[in-house]
User: Fold this.
Amino acid sequence: MRLRIAAGNWKMNKDFNSGIELIKALKEGTTAQDGVHVILGTPFIHLKDAVAMTADVGHIDIAAQNCHQEEKGAYTGETSASMLHSIGIRYVILGHSERRQYFRESNELLGQKVRRALDTGLTPIFCCGESLNIRNEGWHARFVKNQLERSIFELSEADFKKVIIAYEPIWAIGTGVTASPEQAQEMHLEIRNAIAEKYNQSVADETTILYGGSVKPANAVDLFSQPDVDGGLVGGASLKAETFIPITNAFKQA
Ligand code: PGA
Assistant:
Protein backbone atom coordinates (compact mmCIF):
# COMPACT_ATOMS: atom_id res chain seq x y z
CA MET A 1 0.00 0.00 0.00
CA ARG A 2 1.24 3.49 -0.82
CA LEU A 3 2.11 5.78 2.07
CA ARG A 4 -0.51 8.51 2.45
CA ILE A 5 0.57 11.93 3.63
CA ALA A 6 -0.93 15.16 4.90
CA ALA A 7 1.94 17.63 4.58
CA GLY A 8 1.88 21.24 5.70
CA ASN A 9 3.95 23.88 3.95
CA TRP A 10 4.13 26.88 6.24
CA LYS A 11 6.16 28.89 3.70
CA MET A 12 7.49 32.15 5.26
CA ASN A 13 4.85 32.35 7.97
CA LYS A 14 4.85 32.19 11.79
CA ASP A 15 7.33 33.73 14.18
CA PHE A 16 9.19 31.39 16.49
CA ASN A 17 6.69 31.23 19.35
CA SER A 18 3.53 30.94 17.28
CA GLY A 19 5.17 28.15 15.27
CA ILE A 20 6.00 26.24 18.45
CA GLU A 21 2.42 26.71 19.66
CA LEU A 22 1.11 25.28 16.40
CA ILE A 23 3.39 22.22 16.64
CA LYS A 24 2.14 21.63 20.21
CA ALA A 25 -1.48 21.86 19.08
CA LEU A 26 -0.89 19.49 16.17
CA LYS A 27 0.91 17.02 18.39
CA GLU A 28 -2.08 16.97 20.73
CA GLY A 29 -4.74 17.12 18.05
CA THR A 30 -3.58 14.58 15.46
CA THR A 31 -3.76 10.83 15.89
CA ALA A 32 -1.75 7.96 14.44
CA GLN A 33 -3.46 6.22 11.52
CA ASP A 34 -2.22 3.15 9.70
CA GLY A 35 -0.15 4.07 6.65
CA VAL A 36 -0.58 7.81 7.16
CA HIS A 37 2.13 10.37 7.86
CA VAL A 38 1.69 13.98 8.91
CA ILE A 39 4.61 16.10 7.75
CA LEU A 40 5.19 19.69 8.86
CA GLY A 41 7.22 21.85 6.48
CA THR A 42 8.26 24.57 8.87
CA PRO A 43 10.60 27.53 8.41
CA PHE A 44 14.26 26.86 9.21
CA ILE A 45 14.06 28.56 12.60
CA HIS A 46 11.64 25.90 13.86
CA LEU A 47 13.25 22.78 12.48
CA LYS A 48 15.43 21.67 15.38
CA ASP A 49 12.78 22.28 18.01
CA ALA A 50 10.13 20.69 15.80
CA VAL A 51 12.19 17.51 15.52
CA ALA A 52 12.75 17.40 19.29
CA MET A 53 9.08 18.09 20.07
CA THR A 54 7.81 15.34 17.78
CA ALA A 55 10.51 12.73 18.47
CA ASP A 56 8.08 10.72 20.62
CA VAL A 57 5.24 10.90 18.06
CA GLY A 58 5.62 8.28 15.34
CA HIS A 59 3.12 9.75 12.89
CA ILE A 60 4.58 13.29 12.64
CA ASP A 61 7.69 14.11 10.62
CA ILE A 62 9.34 17.43 9.91
CA ALA A 63 10.39 18.78 6.52
CA ALA A 64 12.61 21.65 5.46
CA GLN A 65 11.35 23.80 2.59
CA ASN A 66 14.60 23.94 0.63
CA CYS A 67 18.24 22.91 0.63
CA HIS A 68 21.28 23.76 -1.47
CA GLN A 69 22.56 21.52 -4.23
CA GLU A 70 26.20 21.60 -3.12
CA GLU A 71 27.53 19.63 -0.20
CA LYS A 72 29.09 22.65 1.56
CA GLY A 73 31.08 25.76 0.93
CA ALA A 74 30.97 29.50 0.33
CA TYR A 75 27.24 29.94 -0.32
CA THR A 76 26.25 32.71 2.05
CA GLY A 77 22.77 32.34 3.44
CA GLU A 78 22.21 28.78 2.25
CA THR A 79 21.57 25.55 4.14
CA SER A 80 22.96 22.19 3.06
CA ALA A 81 21.19 18.85 3.04
CA SER A 82 23.73 17.44 5.48
CA MET A 83 23.10 20.32 7.92
CA LEU A 84 19.42 19.40 7.85
CA HIS A 85 20.20 15.73 8.27
CA SER A 86 22.44 16.52 11.24
CA ILE A 87 19.50 17.92 13.21
CA GLY A 88 17.26 14.95 12.44
CA ILE A 89 15.38 16.24 9.39
CA ARG A 90 14.32 13.46 7.00
CA TYR A 91 12.21 15.32 4.40
CA VAL A 92 12.78 18.34 2.19
CA ILE A 93 10.30 20.10 -0.11
CA LEU A 94 11.97 20.83 -3.46
CA GLY A 95 10.75 22.42 -6.66
CA HIS A 96 7.86 24.40 -5.21
CA SER A 97 6.49 26.77 -7.85
CA GLU A 98 7.37 29.73 -5.61
CA ARG A 99 11.02 28.63 -5.65
CA ARG A 100 10.85 28.10 -9.41
CA GLN A 101 9.27 31.51 -9.96
CA TYR A 102 10.89 33.83 -7.41
CA PHE A 103 14.28 32.13 -7.13
CA ARG A 104 14.59 31.02 -10.73
CA GLU A 105 15.06 27.36 -9.85
CA SER A 106 15.20 25.37 -13.08
CA ASN A 107 14.40 21.70 -13.63
CA GLU A 108 18.12 21.03 -14.01
CA LEU A 109 19.01 22.77 -10.74
CA LEU A 110 16.18 20.92 -9.02
CA GLY A 111 17.50 17.65 -10.36
CA GLN A 112 20.81 18.47 -8.65
CA LYS A 113 19.06 19.37 -5.39
CA VAL A 114 17.09 16.13 -5.45
CA ARG A 115 20.25 14.13 -5.98
CA ARG A 116 22.00 15.91 -3.13
CA ALA A 117 19.04 15.35 -0.84
CA LEU A 118 18.92 11.63 -1.67
CA ASP A 119 22.68 11.21 -1.31
CA THR A 120 22.35 12.73 2.15
CA GLY A 121 19.51 10.51 3.25
CA LEU A 122 16.70 13.05 2.88
CA THR A 123 13.42 12.23 1.17
CA PRO A 124 12.48 14.89 -1.37
CA ILE A 125 8.88 16.02 -1.68
CA PHE A 126 9.18 17.12 -5.28
CA CYS A 127 6.65 19.64 -6.60
CA CYS A 128 5.47 20.03 -10.17
CA GLY A 129 2.54 21.78 -11.80
CA GLU A 130 1.39 24.03 -14.59
CA SER A 131 0.34 27.68 -14.83
CA LEU A 132 -3.17 28.80 -15.74
CA ASN A 133 -2.07 29.75 -19.27
CA ILE A 134 -0.74 26.27 -19.91
CA ARG A 135 -3.88 24.69 -18.49
CA ASN A 136 -6.05 26.91 -20.68
CA GLU A 137 -3.99 26.02 -23.73
CA GLY A 138 -4.52 22.35 -22.86
CA TRP A 139 -0.93 21.05 -22.67
CA HIS A 140 -0.67 20.74 -18.87
CA ALA A 141 0.01 16.99 -18.95
CA ARG A 142 2.87 17.42 -21.40
CA PHE A 143 4.28 20.35 -19.40
CA VAL A 144 4.31 18.43 -16.11
CA LYS A 145 5.78 15.35 -17.75
CA ASN A 146 8.56 17.53 -19.14
CA GLN A 147 9.25 18.95 -15.65
CA LEU A 148 9.66 15.39 -14.37
CA GLU A 149 11.74 14.22 -17.31
CA ARG A 150 14.22 17.04 -16.84
CA SER A 151 14.65 16.55 -13.10
CA ILE A 152 13.63 13.40 -11.20
CA PHE A 153 13.32 11.05 -14.18
CA GLU A 154 17.09 11.28 -14.42
CA LEU A 155 17.30 9.24 -11.20
CA SER A 156 18.01 5.53 -11.01
CA GLU A 157 15.00 3.38 -10.18
CA ALA A 158 16.31 2.75 -6.67
CA ASP A 159 16.63 6.49 -6.03
CA PHE A 160 13.37 7.41 -7.72
CA LYS A 161 11.50 5.06 -5.41
CA LYS A 162 12.46 7.27 -2.46
CA VAL A 163 10.86 10.41 -3.93
CA ILE A 164 7.42 11.76 -3.03
CA ILE A 165 5.72 13.82 -5.73
CA ALA A 166 3.38 16.75 -5.16
CA TYR A 167 1.26 17.87 -8.10
CA GLU A 168 0.48 21.53 -7.49
CA PRO A 169 -1.23 23.44 -10.29
CA ILE A 170 0.02 27.02 -9.89
CA TRP A 171 -3.45 28.44 -10.56
CA ALA A 172 -4.74 26.66 -7.45
CA ILE A 173 -1.98 27.72 -5.03
CA GLY A 174 -3.08 30.32 -2.50
CA THR A 175 -5.96 31.36 -4.75
CA GLY A 176 -8.82 29.56 -3.06
CA VAL A 177 -9.49 27.90 -6.42
CA THR A 178 -8.97 24.16 -6.00
CA ALA A 179 -8.57 21.70 -8.83
CA SER A 180 -11.71 19.61 -8.89
CA PRO A 181 -11.24 16.04 -7.64
CA GLU A 182 -11.59 14.93 -11.28
CA GLN A 183 -8.92 17.38 -12.49
CA ALA A 184 -6.57 16.24 -9.72
CA GLN A 185 -7.23 12.55 -10.44
CA GLU A 186 -6.66 13.05 -14.17
CA MET A 187 -3.24 14.61 -13.63
CA HIS A 188 -2.21 12.17 -10.91
CA LEU A 189 -2.99 9.32 -13.27
CA GLU A 190 -1.01 11.06 -16.05
CA ILE A 191 1.95 11.34 -13.68
CA ARG A 192 1.61 7.74 -12.53
CA ASN A 193 1.46 6.56 -16.14
CA ALA A 194 4.54 8.62 -16.99
CA ILE A 195 6.38 6.91 -14.11
CA ALA A 196 5.27 3.49 -15.36
CA GLU A 197 6.51 4.37 -18.85
CA LYS A 198 9.87 5.62 -17.55
CA TYR A 199 10.45 2.97 -14.88
CA ASN A 200 7.76 0.28 -14.54
CA GLN A 201 4.24 -0.24 -13.26
CA SER A 202 5.24 -1.43 -9.82
CA VAL A 203 7.38 1.68 -9.22
CA ALA A 204 4.43 3.78 -10.43
CA ASP A 205 2.04 1.95 -8.12
CA GLU A 206 4.30 2.54 -5.13
CA THR A 207 4.92 6.27 -5.67
CA THR A 208 3.08 8.59 -3.31
CA ILE A 209 1.60 11.51 -5.26
CA LEU A 210 0.18 14.41 -3.24
CA TYR A 211 -2.14 17.12 -4.48
CA GLY A 212 -1.47 20.75 -3.53
CA GLY A 213 -3.41 23.94 -4.16
CA SER A 214 -6.07 25.32 -1.81
CA VAL A 215 -6.65 22.05 0.03
CA LYS A 216 -9.01 22.77 2.94
CA PRO A 217 -11.18 20.78 5.35
CA ALA A 218 -14.17 21.18 3.00
CA ASN A 219 -12.49 19.55 -0.02
CA ALA A 220 -9.87 17.22 1.49
CA VAL A 221 -12.13 14.15 1.70
CA ASP A 222 -13.22 14.45 -1.94
CA LEU A 223 -9.65 14.97 -3.14
CA PHE A 224 -8.13 12.21 -1.01
CA SER A 225 -10.87 9.79 -2.15
CA GLN A 226 -9.51 9.83 -5.69
CA PRO A 227 -7.69 6.57 -6.44
CA ASP A 228 -4.41 8.22 -7.46
CA VAL A 229 -4.40 11.05 -4.90
CA ASP A 230 -2.39 9.91 -1.89
CA GLY A 231 -2.80 13.01 0.25
CA GLY A 232 -2.04 16.70 0.14
CA LEU A 233 0.59 19.39 0.40
CA VAL A 234 -1.21 22.16 2.22
CA GLY A 235 -0.22 25.82 2.48
CA GLY A 236 -2.73 28.27 3.98
CA ALA A 237 -4.84 25.67 5.78
CA SER A 238 -1.76 24.19 7.48
CA LEU A 239 -1.19 27.38 9.47
CA LYS A 240 -3.98 26.74 11.95
CA ALA A 241 -4.61 23.61 13.99
CA GLU A 242 -8.37 23.91 13.45
CA THR A 243 -8.00 23.72 9.67
CA PHE A 244 -5.05 21.32 9.42
CA ILE A 245 -6.24 18.66 11.90
CA PRO A 246 -9.44 17.91 9.92
CA ILE A 247 -7.29 17.56 6.77
CA THR A 248 -5.09 15.00 8.53
CA ASN A 249 -8.27 13.13 9.46
CA ALA A 250 -9.74 13.25 5.95
CA PHE A 251 -8.19 9.85 5.12
CA LYS A 252 -10.61 8.22 7.57
CA GLN A 253 -13.54 9.26 5.41
CA ALA A 254 -11.81 9.01 2.03
P1 PGA B 1 -2.17 26.59 -0.57
O1 PGA B 1 -0.63 26.29 -0.89
O2 PGA B 1 -2.71 25.39 0.15
O3 PGA B 1 -2.15 27.83 0.29
O4 PGA B 1 -2.85 26.80 -1.89
C1 PGA B 1 -0.22 25.00 -1.29
C2 PGA B 1 1.26 25.01 -1.55
O5 PGA B 1 1.78 26.00 -2.06
O6 PGA B 1 1.94 24.01 -1.25
Remarks:
- The chain has 13 helices and eight strands.
- The domain at 4-252 is CATH 3.20.20.70 (TIM Barrel).
